[in-house]
Structure formats: structure tokens, C-alpha cells
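@here heads up, posting the sequence + SMILES for the zinc ion run so it's all in one place. Ping me if the SMILES looks off, I pulled it from an old spreadsheet.
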Amino acid sequence: MDRQAAKSARLVGPQGHDPKFQARVTELLKAGVKGDRAIARKLHCHYFQVAVARALTGQMAGAGNMIGYFKGWVAKNHLLAEARSARERAYAPYSRFLVGAAVATDAGVFTGGNVENASYSVTICAERVAAASAVAAGARRLDVMAVTSSSPTPTPPCGACRQFLYEFNPEMLVVSAGRSGDLRQWRLSAILADAFGREDLEEGS
Ligand SMILES: [Zn+2]
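bot reply: prediction finished. Complex C-alpha cells:
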């Protein structure tokens, strides 16, 4: 679809041209990306809007779920864009394996890149840099962690990061994007089985 066709298509809802429909879609998009207009504009694609339109007009089963799904999709993409931006600031002169992370928390979004060191073992992963930045700013609940790396395939968090993140929400959603555009996601509790957490210390005291 060329740009002009896309522009006119986005004004056509299930009942034809409908400014109210367009306004509602725009409102949903803005809510999903927390007012980031640049990203909202990018997401004004035909297929996305038709699907939202069907959900809004009840033409699709589970319309409420569908709107929630699209809001989640928009938020996830926003977070991944932040992670990509953070990857550009990663410090990895030894491995040249750049990683960026962005975490959505109860205190906003925080980012980080991996930070390597000449003494290799003290290197810190991007996920932990982002999480520590969030906690230092007052966040206590980490909801979604987005990660991007130099790899063409989505990379999962390492074992140390899984343990570190578990402290701030065992059910955290981790979303990872490869450079080829592939996406994978996990619940933290599913990739860190029988984890040691705060409750274990409480039981022992
Ligand atoms: Zn790690």
C-alpha cells in the first residue's frame, strides 16, 4: 500500500468515513504509547486501525480483549524502541555485543545498556543497569522488561539477571527482539523455576 492509499484508508472505518471512529482510534493509540506522538503516527497503519475498528464496533469476538491486546502491543513496541535507543549507548568494547534494555515500572520507564569492564567478570548486563536505574529512582515494581541485542535472534536474560529481576516482580513480562525483527516473550517465573526470593528469607528468620 502506498503512502497516499494508507492515508485515505485510515479514515475509513467499518461504516465508511467516520471522524468519530478516527478520533477514538487516535485516542487509543495515544493512551497506549503514553502520549508519544511520533510513535503514534508511525502506528497509524491500515491493518492496525481496521482491526481496532472491528473490535470497537463489536464485529470481532472478545472486543474488549482485543483493545487490551492492541494497547499492550503498542506499549510493548514503545518499550522496545526505548531499548533500541539504549543499545546505542551500550559500552561493550571487548565483546562488541551491544545490548539495550527498557523497563516499565510503577515510577515510569527506565533504560540501560550493558557496561563491560577490562576486568571481564565485573561486566554488568543491560537488564540489570535498567533495573538498578529504576530502583534508584524509587521504582519498586517492575512490570515489563524489553531487551534488544546485536543478535539476529531474540536473546533471553542471563541467569544472574533472572535472579536480580525476580526480586521486583516474579511475574514480570520479559520481551526480547532480535535484529531480524523476531520477538519472544516470557514470564520471569517460567524461566526461573523454584526461585529463591524474599519469602525464603522471611521463613528462615
Ligand atoms: Zn544478564
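MO: The pocket of zinc ion is lined by residues 125, 127, 157-158, 160-161 (CB under 6 Å).
MO: One more: The beta strands are 12-13, 16-17, 99-105, 108-113, 142-149, 173-177, 183-187.
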